[in-house]
Design goal:
Helices cover 63% and strands 0% of the residues.
Length: 428
Amino acid sequence: MPPSTPRRPAPPPTQQVRHPAPALPRAQDLRPDPASDAPTPAGRGRLVLLALTLALLLPAAASAPGPAPGPSPDPAPDPAPDPSQDPLARPTADELWADGQREDAITLQAQGLAADPGNVDLRRSLALRELAVHRYEGALATASEAPQALAWIRAECLFQLGRYEQALPLLDPADPFQALLHLEALERLGRTEEARADLPQVAELIGADDPRLLGVLGRLDAGDGAHAAAARSFEAVLAQDPYDLGALFGLGQAKLRSGAREEGLELLERHRELVPIMDQWDFAQRAVDLAPLHAANHAQLGDVERALGRLDRAREAYMRAASLSDDRALAPVVLRLARLLEEDLADPDAAVAALDAGAAQSGDLRLIVRAGDVLMRAGRADEAAARFQAALARRPGDPALEARLAQATASTRATSTGAATPDDGDGR
């Protein structure tokens, strides 16, 4: 959902037996929070190293608690009790959620709700967490057991499931977020006159320049044949979010119908190209929502952000992936980050810094060699030679490394050819 979309006030906190569940916002606002999704101690060390090197500030994670002290040695022959059987030794749903184990957290919370079905706060917390991982059917079933108290959650689930007619009576038109859903539901049901009647109130609640409101207005105008007016609305949406597929398609259609054929065809071609990439983005973001401490999910999101040209967001995703990676998985992430820094952001110094930091952390030879390659392309042959010598010390007689070192030795910083260097096997 676009950042300018109004956000529903958070519900009151959930009452649980051990720890109160956090008050959660609506599903679209729930994204991995570095302050709660703390990495492991090893990941924290990597995060600090990379962050200091690149001068990119990432939230510091709180120190992980140490293990609970075990029972005192017992000379009796009876075995010590199994900690897994002690309810106080098991993590709570809140702890599992904060640790990124969201499926397990939902399962455990559902078990608690089964034992206490009348606990509305617990039911609200569970439904919101199901929404956060896009389990709309499950959230709807959970919220339906308390129909009055959780009507707004049921409405959002029904809307996300495309059951607009059922969602409409549950939506409060005085609430900014729900008023927007009410407007969109009317428009999607083809009840255009009612939707137009809703426009002034929704505009007053969320602002007339809200992109979702403008999108609805553009579609209503297009349906009435007012293609010039529709084009203005879609252009205003794209000025805020160039990747809004609905606005891109709507503007292409409006231009075609207004006689601007070439411009319309170009816009529709852009839409066609973006659709599969945005599908990949949606898949990657959902994976992050479900497992926010899984490094590969953030790396995949970084790849899609880079393909979209959102380079700052790609760098942030790669940095997050690096902070969560163990030593074996770190090198591929750092190689992707370095490529982004060198090729897309034109910052070879940051690329070399990232590679050096990753090599110091993981000891992976590929990072040392790639740092030398980047330095060669930057015209810093003497520094490159030092990297290749360090690599050869670990892999003596390697012909590819010897060729790199010979090229670096024969070059000077001022006369770098800038030619591409041999591939080091990471898929470049």
